[in-house]
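Task 17 of the worksheet. Students: predict the tertiary structure of the chain below and write it out as structure tokens. Keep your answer in the requested format; marks are given for formatting as well as content.
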Amino acid sequence: MDHTKMTLGSLFDGSGGFPLGGILAGIEPKWSSEIEPFPVLVTHKRLPGVRHYGDVSSLSGAELPPVDIITFGSPCQDLSIAGKRAGIHDGDRSNLFFQAIRIIKEMRDATNGRYPRYCVWENVPGAFSSHGGDDFKAVLEAVIGIKEEGIEVPSPENHRWPKSDVYLGNGWSVAYRVFDAQYWGVPQRRARIYLVADLAGGSAGEVLFKSEGVSGYTPQGFRSWQGAAGAAEEGAHPTGRLCLNDQGGQFMDVSEDVSGTLRSQMDGHPPVVLENLDAIAVENHPTDSRVTVSEDGKVQTLTSRMGTGGNNVPLVLKIRCGCEGGGKGPLIQTDKSATLATNNDQTLFVPTVFGICAKDSNAMKSGNPNSGFYEAETTRTLDANGGSPVCNQGGMAVVAVQGSMIGRADKNGPQGSGVNEDISFTLDATDRHAVAHPVYSTSKSSFHLLAEEDVVNTLVATDYKDPPIVAEEPYYIVRRLTPTECARLQGFPDWWCACLGTEEPTEQDIEFWREVFETHRRVTGSAAKPKSDAQLVKWLKDPHADSAEYKLWGNGVALPCVCFVLAGIVYYDQSEG
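Model answer:
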């Protein structure tokens, strides 16, 4: 094996986060294992040098190419507090953890204990409490058992595992730590356990707790990496950010402030500066249909249920303003993900104007409870009848109201009072909720230098030549996160899942994907019969679906956290050498 660069194999590969994180940390990814066709396609296109293997249950560690590091984010559904919590032993998916342990043991037996030296496990914090904490105890004992069998890990007091710890033995070390992605450069609350085992030394704790800064990877560094590229200016300027450079599809490197050399053979993969998500995060609560503005500006944890319906995709607020001549106008934004795909609808929150009749008007005196208030598009006519001052009482109101309270009987009333402050009502397919905002006006009376809120400048006779201008304050749009924004929230480049189609699939392509889909069908039971060649060709030409990409990101890893862990392994491995 080549000892100048560490090597990596990824089980349950998903979004390709561990191979990509390995590249960024100076590690060469050799192979990966995954059964979902879309994630396989993504890594197949983005990392063509990584060999793909299928179902972990059918793999033999003795037959896989030996690697220095094996990573595995085994399925978490049976451990997560959001799942049924069948547990690591009884769950149909989470018990695949033990298949990974088997593969690692088989590889070490075949290489006389040389490979792999390190293994990295990533999973949800729900593993701490699953089955009263016994499942995490089983995890620790299984990982330690790779090197020294029969070790019993004592359960903590009250079966409450600390969020970090280190275990040392004779020639081995195991450490774990909870990383929350929001503190590592991406605005997503995504807490995950990272467990590192050094099967030939005592560096596991140093990797997780001492490598920050010395390995070159820090939360601050990842925040700048995810920063927006800034406004375009003439000439060359330092970006103050890291640039990801695709070197001909063979490997990627990272440069700071300077992009890689532009080449005529870039084939659609020029250097990329990653941008941030410049939007307001909204908490989407599918269990009780609440929608609230995130207090800390962080997006909810992405889950594998995204794209499957039931409002499982987090929401963001974007600002849209009017334009000359009417119309929806441009989006005010700094990122590129404003265009919504066919599966990502949006709901507009726009002002609704109501006319309020005078107190002494016949409408107000009517016994009809809906009389006296009406939705209006024009202002009320001034009434000079009889000179009575009460004739012009009432007026116009621009209010934030719930859609379901407009024009409905009391028995079908709204949620609560029908008026909320700062919190959106539940979004549904029928109601169009409204939001109030002020209107600004300016005119040549103030030389267009003064804008009054809700008050028009003095009208003058020559206004017909240069009429007053009324401008609405930008209003908000509530919509789901786009798949591209989910990629950014995981720390990935925008184009990671873009341009995946193959216009003219070869026989070799069809044979490869026939096996991939058949493995997926056999393992998941998702289809009654195999896909035909015609179906495979159609999918290969246009494989992207928002639902598949949402699922990929929900099951994926936060790249900054992965890079930190893998960079620490490289640093301490090189320090020993």
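Marker's comment: Residues 228-272 form one domain. The two ends are 16 Å apart (CA to CA).
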